[in-house]
Design goal:
Cofactor: FAD
Pfam families: FAD-oxidase_C, FAD_binding_4
CATH topology of the largest domain: Uridine Diphospho-n-acetylenolpyruvylglucosamine Reductase, domain 3
Radius of gyration: 24 Å
Distance between the termini: 49 Å
Protein name: FAD-binding oxidoreductase
GO molecular function, one term: FAD binding
Shape: globular
Largest sheet: 7 strands, antiparallel
CATH class of the largest domain: Alpha Beta
Number of domains: 4
Keywords: FAD, Flavoprotein, Oxidoreductase
Strand order of the largest sheet: 15-12-14-13-17-18-16
CATH architecture of the largest domain: 2-Layer Sandwich
Length: 498
Amino acid sequence: MSGLAMPSVNADIMARRAEIVAALREIVPGEGTVDDEIGMRTYESDALTAYRQMPFVVVLPETVEQVAKVLKYCHENGIRVVPRGAGTSLSGGALPLADAVLVSMMRFNRILDIDFDNRTATVQPGVTNLAITQAVSHEGFYYAPDPSSQIACSIGGNIAENSGGVHCLKYGLTTNNVLGLQIVTIEGEVMRFGGKHLDSEGYDWLAFMVGSEGLLGVVTEVTVRILRSPETARAVLVGFPDAEDAGRAVAAIIGAGIIPGGMEMMDRPAIHAAEAFVHAGYPLDVDALLIVELDGPQVEVDHLLQRVEAICREYGCTTCRVSESEEERANFWAGRKAAFPAVGRISPDYMCMDGTIPRRELPRVLKGMAELSEKHGLRVANVFHAGDGNLHPLILFDANQPGELERAEAFGADILKLCVEVGGCLTGEHGVGVEKRDLMPEMFTEDDLKQQQRVKCAFDPQHLLNPGKVFPVLHRCAELGKMHVHHGKLPFPDIPRF
């Protein structure tokens, strides 16, 4: 796995494999427990295919009771567990371990309740993102977060990574659209946080769970907010001869107080790849393309389109084309949403990064990535959520060429370090997983990381849930609980201690 350090394999667990598989088959019978090599091969990686590892065993529970029994058994026997959704994660968050039970939640695929009066939908975690919108669209509603993989990615996986998508600029990420969760802890305890009500009482447990990457519990039910579909939605394609000018136009649009429903940017390599793949009508004589969507009442949309066009012309755009029908608007977005597979046609392999930066730094970071491309000798195609500064550089390489994977990893690390340097962060929606794990100290101090690990210890003291992910060095919970004594003096000496 390209030198990626993972937790050492527990030899005792490996020696007991037949016994453990038999016990799991009692809980999840028949095809719900998979232990043969061919059957498990499907689960050896997520969408970050540079890293692969065959699972110890795979279970596919169908009921909350089965999930609780599996986790309780693993907890009582000291067995590690890796939760998994649809496997579309791009950070290695669902990468198996050689001695861990992989729990796939894709049989939890039912929509349980749709409440139009309260504008909520309650679903199981294996329901795909797009299926929620399809289930409510007949009444004029939709689910706002829309990752590019929405046709395949599961809502449970979206919660693990706090996924976003094209429309998160105006309508928020997953965390802004989840109202309630049911989870199962590693001890097998079933817990509920939130519900259909607007705000939860007490501590904000939802904020802990959304984006926790499978480290705190396994999600078994989700209640999300659904929204009324806007009266009007129109998109405009804007081409620029210079990518840095396109970045300045993005900052100017937001600075003018305009919040588009979505605002995406693609550079020349991505434009050409997407157009060849989808034939969306993209201009091919530009270095950067913005797709800006405005939604709301028609009179407002028409007015904002004029303002956006004026701003883009001020920053040197050479083409500007407004969608004239719903079909044309959908076609504009089809190219953007197919950009990742389209790039796969021009390179044997690619690595998709996920840094986030302040919008004003777009020109600087685009220039920096071009310089890093020359430094590492690898091409890069840029596709990203320009409105909220969430970058998705696609580093193109050939894993069959010796050293190219390592160069791609180094290139990606440099891009993420640049994001942090300009005031951004390591991830916007793909999560940390194993991909960015060892870069966490670039963004957080040791004390920051220890504080985060204390939350992990509260839910999972033995570190059985998804170990090897997110934290570069995992301290034992007992170590994190020790009181620090400096020069023989306790902290806060005036506080009574018992």
